[in-house]
Amino acid sequence: MTVIQPKLTPKQKALAINLDQTIYGTFAEIGAGQETVRHFFRAGGASQTIAKAMSAYDKDFSDAIYGKEAKNRYVTQNRLRKMLRYEVSLIEERVSRATCPGRKFFSYANTVTTINFDKTMKGHGWVGLRFQCHEADDYNEIVLHVKFNENDATLQQETLGSLGVNLIYGAFNYADNPRRMINSLLDDISKDNIEIDMIDFSGPAFSYVDNRLMSLQLVKNGMTDAVIFNSEGNNMLPADILYKKNIFAVRGSFRPVTLVNIDMFEKGLEMFKKDWGCSQEETEVLFEITIANLRAAGDIDERDFLDRVDVLGKLGYTVIISNFSEYYRLIDYFAPYTNGKIGVAMGVNNMLDVFDENYYENLSGGILEAFGKFFRKGMRVYLYPYKDPETQQLLTANNLKVNDSLKELYKYFKHNKRIVDIQNFNPDYSEIYSRIILDKIANHIPGWEKEVPEGVADLIKERGMFGYKEELKLKEFS
């Protein structure tokens, strides 16, 4: 029988670190007081753990220590990493390894801004740790971005303090199990109080870690609604890439990416830029996969997840993983970041889901509340036609049949060009279906290679993706 160990409180975790005589380091906290280090002072036995605790609160003083920041932005990932590395260099410079054998050095830092007086800015920040697993090892880093949800600065400071303790304790106790470490970050913290929307592991202890999988854990565990990573697989802060941008999104399973997906994206984006006069530089394109889609066959298959994003990455696309089953939640997620235009490319079947009232039973305002968030000003749907395999009828915005009670509402959105058909689509792709391609891949039925973008088939075969079995692969060449 598995025995579930009780979770330690921040005080208990701080005490456990203090009592470990091999752990020694510094705390540098900017913007919300010394909320993390106070746990270690209060727990007792801190004299063997804390080399220094500081709060370089004044910008001029902070600049004198860590250097100036571009555009005078201090709550940034770059600032945090500067702090971590500078403080570690001081420990190495000022503490002799000869007189302190066996010690694992660390530097904890955060740079945050809590909720403002008018409560118009909720507050956010960067939190990180640079540490050794053993005294002779190179340093590892864990960096994360947080958004505060509480409406009181003092409460946000307390939450930050607990998070810092959890990070330090987790690093020294769960470095060999990053998933457990991520789960422990919110010990003694309500998920309603804080959101972690980016995390990055680096260093020798995490050489095997794929940060895309760590991002997936954040969404899977309900610690954030969405995570984004670029075509190189690097975690991206949503605010950094979406801020004041026009956004064009394509949702799909991408299992695998087909010529239909690319045709929908390219033709839809072309219309979007023409409709709103958007340049490529002003527009962020996102390929979205939902957690619900990843769970379609049961538990999330991480290999399958990586297969999908690897193919999208090879094609040069940025990926967003979300828990937004309903489209209106995706648009609502974008809204705080930008006042720009938003476009969504989707197929006819997805549009029918949008106009299905059953999806909105959890909303007090029902489908009208959802539509208010979805069809907001500056948002437009680009609809890709669908050829019914049984009737051979091509379904478009003009002949799409929605529920009788929503006919007039549908006509309204179509009349006002909130829903438009994608023009110049390639009719040769109308009979490409991803589920059939998957079956062909798994059973080595030829022909599917011509139904996916150039280079994708080679990648699938090379890596054995989407059920492409190696033993069958060998038979093809025997």
* Multimerization state: single chain
* Inertia-based shape: elongated
The CATH class name of the largest domain reads Alpha Beta
Cα distance, first to last residue? 50 Å
Short summary:
This protein is α/β, with parallel strands linked by helices and 478 residues long. It has helices at residues 10-19, 37-43, 59-66, 77-94, 153-173, 178-184, 211-220, 238-242, 259-276, 291-294, 302-314, 327-334, 348-354, 366-374, 407-415, 434-443, 456-463, 470-476, and strands at residues 23-30, 50-54, 104-113, 124-131, 140-148, 194-202, 226-229, 235-236, 246-251, 283-290, 318-322, 342-347, 379-384, 386-387, 394-395, 419-421. The protein is 37% helix and 19% strand.
Description:
With 478 residues, this protein is α/β, with parallel strands linked by helices. It folds into two domains: 10-209, Maf protein; 240-429, Rossmann fold, CATH 3.40.50. It has 18 helices and 16 strands. The strands form three sheets. It has an eight-stranded mixed beta sheet, sandwiched between helices. The chain has a six-stranded mixed beta sheet with strand order 2-1-3-4-5-6, with helices on both faces. The longest helix has 21 residues, at 153-173. It is elongated, with a radius of gyration of 25 Å.
Name the descriptors:
16 strands, 478 residues, elongated, Rossmann fold, 18 helices, single chain, eight-stranded mixed beta sheet
